[in-house]
Write a structure and sequence with these properties.
The chain is mainly α and 549 residues long. It has helices spanning 2-11, 25-59, 66-78, 82-96, 101-116, 134-140, 143-153, 179-188, 202-215, 221-237, 242-258, 262-275, 280-292, 296-312, 315-321, 324-335, 339-350, 359-371, 377-382, 393-402, 407-419, 429-436, 446-459, 467-481, 487-490, 492-507, 514-527, 534-545, and strands at 130-133, 163-167, 172-177, 196-199. It has a domain at 40-159. It has a 4-stranded mixed sheet with strand order 1-3-2-4. α9 packs antiparallel against α10 (221-237). InterPro entries: TPR-like_helical_dom_sf. Residues 15-34 are annotated as: Disordered.
Length: 549
Amino acid sequence: WAGLGWQAARSLGPRVRAPPLRQSMPKKKEASAEVDAEAVQKAVKDAELLTQELADVAREGALDSVEAWIGLSDHAFKLQQYEMAFAIIRAGVIKNGMAVDKLCKRYLFMLDMIVKSKMNPRKKPEGPPKMLYLRELFSALPSALKEKIYEAAGAEAVKPGERCVLMKERSVMVVGLSLHEWRVLLERNSGPKLDMQMISGVEEAVVRGLSQSEGMSDAQADLKMSWNQWALRLCEAEDGSAQLRSKCLLQRTVLLLQQAQHTKALDSAAEVLKIVPESKHAAALLATAQHKAGQKKAASTTVTDLCLAFQRADDNAISEELGHPLELAVALLVEMHRTKEALKLLSCLLARVLGPRHQPLFFGLARLYAKHGLNKDALVLKLPSLCCKPPDRRTWELLKSMAEYTPVAVEQQLQRYIEETGPGRFTHVPHITEVMCKLPFGAHGSAANKALQLLKQCAQQVTPERPEDLRIIVEDLRAFMSSNTPAAVSEQFPRTIEKLLLDYMRALRPENGLEAWEMPSELMKRSFNGVPPLALIEALQVACLRVPV
């Protein structure tokens, strides 16, 4: 049958035969190689021509002429040698400065031309930008032209700088700008035409990339990883510091763990430890990766060593490493059913909390106790020693933070402060009621009701002899009027204000000072939006009638 089909096809003539197959891949590669070779030959010839022209300009002593540099750059542009055109105009800017507007405009145009060549029209808007390294551009320049530019404009003209710029519209970052170029771009960036982001150096660019990755939601895992890879490539290409590279690798390890790529995460964490052997964060990630990858024995050894490292570290190191590393270590110990060791580690660190200056460390440890359901008796005993007397701003912030984790201890501490209040000592009452509202009292509005009872007790002690007490209590009651509390509770606050003001005005006497007499009317206006109840107005009139003429 095959033979018969072939003969039938031959008998039908050439018109019905199958068309020839498309050009094979080897031939395509050969054609592409020929085109590349022709482009290289043309670039060499064009470079020789431009080198000769630059030599002629130097011979004529016209290197200080802006027009000469612009003419050379334009000629390179007409030859379609855009990178050579940029290198020449860049040298002109470095040689003649940024004062000449025409030179700066031509520089911006040539920069935009080489940036366009790096553009990726299909790139997602939120993805990392393409990179344009001036270091690579200069290394690709023909040596003769490069040497002539060096002779004409100095070493800086053929050497990459340290600055960067992100061309937002093109989504391309240029790395290696000199200070002269950066100043040109800074000045021109004030105009509406160019949309650029100036970056002071590679380190800032890498940190921005890491922040971009960190700021995205976990649902965008691929995009987070692409930003991290971008930052890591930039760091490695520009010989970033070991510390910077370790940051990139640490973030990569975290992302790999999130994607359940445990073996890759293990290798990544080990790579960080080669750079920074004492990194607790890397050790914690390594132990987690080992545990998830099924290497239970290795994970157990790593986490044991990590616990010893935490116990040996000084206070400053503990503060720096408290976040993710310690959290990973405690979580791993709990997951391995080594709860006693987790408690021992946290207790050891808690023993270093010696006073108010260690409040951040204490709060971080408290969060871990609560997160993993560990016994919090040690926290309850330690809390009073961290509270200043009299309480300051840091103390109130600590109590607000700890209300969720150790409510009983916080309530006991508040009770101590409440016992110290009294006439002339109501300054801390607003802080006390604010912390009370953070305590988990149960039903919605219970905290506000407790605060109301406290304020009623304080209101009974207010007298005209201390008008400032009246202002403090009324202002705190006013704050609760606008809060989100049930109607049954919220409506009691204006009633309490009204009763407090009535009692205060009934107690006013002619011998009381001017401030004592002025305070009620001012608070009445503020508490009731300028329309106080009639009973308050009448009480104020009666009080005024008691003043002898």
